[in-house]
Amino acid sequence: MAPFWCGMIVFFVFAMILEQVSHYVFLVMPWAGSEYIKNHTLAYAVYGCLAAGIFEETGRFFAFSIPLKKHRERTACVTYGLGHGGCEAMLIAGMPAISYLVLYYNPALDTTSAISTIVPGTLALGILERLLAIVIHVSLSVIVFTAVTTGRKYLYPVAIVLHALVDVPAVLYQRQVISGLATVEILTAAESAILAIIAYKMYKKLPEA
């Protein structure tokens, strides 16, 4: 279980702490650069997508290079990816779900307005999005693991670019360039399928132990 817990910890440190510091500098702090990024969709998309790719793939590269350097069995990258993606799913989907359950089952609270905002279709899309995200995280973990264990270091920046491309539909949805959430999920599903095929071919060539 070491790769799984490492995945959870690395995601939290690199995505929820270090990446958020970067967001504060480039999106929140009042200076010319942050104003430009916020006011220009292309700059916002490039920054947002690359930031996610750089921090999360660097986290993977660090994990496989140092704390997991003794775990060279190929199953380690899948287990790590499940931990990495699982932590994200817990923070993004799990915590809100728990909040809704608390509201729903607490008789002291008026939950009519809160619960009525939950649309079954939106809930289903949210579940699909998390499942696709885990597939993406496992696939990228395989790619970075291959970069570290086979000496093909160029796969590390490739993983950053792939991660950035995967995030493009979601960022364009945030900026209202893409209007439909279903469109975002269809594009993400196509991207996750391509990544999974690439990762599977790499995985089959890795040593079992």
How big a fraction of the residues is strand? under 5%
> Which descriptor suits the 3D outline?
globular
Task: Give the CA-CA distance, first to last residue.
Answer: 16 Å
H/E element sequence: HHHHHHHH
Structural class: mainly alpha
Radius of gyration: 19 Å
Overall pLDDT metric: 88
The count of DSSP E runs of length 2 or more, i.e. the number of strands, is: 0
Description:
- The mean pLDDT is 88.
- Helices cover 82% and strands 0% of the residues.
- With 209 residues, it is mostly helical.
- Helix 6 runs antiparallel to helix 7.
Question: Concise description?
Answer:
This protein is mostly helical and 209 residues long.
Features:
209 residues
Question: What are the SSEs and their pairings?
Answer:
Elements: H1 2-28, H2 32-39, H3 41-65, H4 75-105, H5 112-116, H6 120-150, H7 155-174, H8 181-205
